[in-house]
Amino acid sequence: MVHNPVVVAALSAALLAPLAAGMYSSNSPVLQLTSKNFAEKILKSNHASVVEFYAPWCGHCKNLKPAYEKAAENMKGLAQVAAIDCDEDANKRTCSEYGVQGFPTIKVFKPGKSGKPAIQDYQGPRTAKGIVDFLIEQIPNHVTRINSKTVEGFLKENNETAKAILFTKKGVATPLYKALAVDLLGSVKFAQVRDKETEVLELFGISKLPTFLVLPGGTAEGIIYDGEMKKEGMLKFVSKFAKTSAGKPAAQAEEAESSSTSTSSSAPPPRPTFDSTIPEAPSLEDFAATCGSKICILVVVPDGAPELTAPEKTNYYVNHIKQTFPFFQVQLSKLSVEFVKGFGLEKSDKVQMRALSAKRGWYVGYDGDSASDEAMKDWIDKVKMGEIKKTKIPVFEREEVVTPPEPVKDAPAPEEPAKEAPKEEEPPKEAPKHEEL
């Protein structure tokens, strides 16, 4: 792949170098935390979480990274594997609140009945298997075990609320099934029946195991799930029967909304909504690989909004044209003065966009109506067709990235002793299988 080295170096120096400090990329399975989202993502979550408090310059943190990302991949959909960069000034207060004195420090947060999570230091092996095994034990169990004596009471309790029942040969709930119950906590009651409970199996007419059944509520008959016993499909199935804020099952609410829309000639058709997140601008290497030979769209987020919460207008285009142009976001305050000036940006509370080509050395600014989908579509089309005036990317004074030395003064606590360095990863074959029910 051919790149314009001067332009890439200039972009790196002015834009990407400040962002390259974080150890986990936007594509990492590890959940990225900041002081601003820590409470929402961890303290208020119904899911169990493990959090690594780290510094990018820490040797032990770098050694842990491969195992930690493996753990995050293994626990996807079951529990949260997260990390926070304590070297970032904005995050230092949070790291201090949790008594972090060395790196990496790993803490586990388990939701508690009082609304506050129970917190403990992770002292186990620093391997993917060690972290996974420990975190699995922290997954809250909201699954009720029912038998011939308790089934009647379970069915009568909150009869209007949907109930999900798994008929299985297993005596205890699997991590997958417990995670499903956590996902729909408060909307659907989950239960499990073992094969030995023959009376209960006969009551529901169950002849094969495992069988996943949902009782929609009231007098509605039970519906059997006929897909693979994997979380994604099971969650999609049972979510249809979860209660909405209006007190109706989601499936009924969607049907009613569709019917209302089709019978009203004056009402405009509903606009599509999406739930994707524009990734943060990557490191220089990733940037060069992604944008070196194609046009990229840079979304500049105003100060006070550290994460772009995917406004509908921007999200619409990410989902519809991301195969044509990669989208990246960056916080305005992380840009150098030279970059802000050179790319015609302003200190603004509005989202700004720039289309740029590192290979050809030009950029195009978006100056249309930020509330108009049509204006954005027209701009994108003109950029794609080359029908819009381009501005040459300025060559900034610094043309190469210089890695800053490790901090000396006011630095965070030193790394932990070498004896606590992560152990060699255990064979994958020993990793637990979490998709089995």
Compact description:
This protein has 437 residues and is of the alpha/beta class. The protein is built from 14 helices and 15 strands. The two termini are 46 Å apart.
On the 0 to 100 scale, the average pLDDT is 77
CATH topology of the largest domain: Glutaredoxin
Strand content: 15-25%
- Percentage of residues in helical conformation: 25-40%
Give a short account of the largest sheet.
5 strands, mixed
| Poorly predicted regions | 16-21, 253-276, 305-313, 397-431
User: Regarding CATH, which class of the largest domain?
Assistant: Alpha Beta
**N to C succession of SSEs:** HEHEHEHEEHEHEHEHEEHHHEHEHEEHE
Number of domains: 3
The CATH superfamily of the largest domain bears the name Glutaredoxin
Shape: globular
Question: In the CATH hierarchy, what is the architecture of the largest domain at level 2?
Answer: 3-Layer(aba) Sandwich
Distance between the termini: 46 Å
Radius of gyration: 26 Å
Count, helices? 14
Number of strands: 15
Query: What is the structural class?
Result: alpha/beta
Strand order of the largest sheet: 1-3-2-4-5
Can you give a write-up of this model?
Helix content is 30%, strand content 17%. The protein contains 14 helices and 15 strands. The strands form three sheets. A five-stranded mixed sheet has the order 1-3-2-4-5. A five-stranded mixed sheet has the order 6-8-7-9-10. The protein has a five-stranded mixed sheet with strand order 12-11-13-14-15, with no helix packed on it. Strand 11, helix 12 (312-321) and strand 12 (327-331) form a beta-alpha-beta unit. The model is unreliable at 16-21, 253-276, 305-313 and 397-431 (pLDDT under 50).
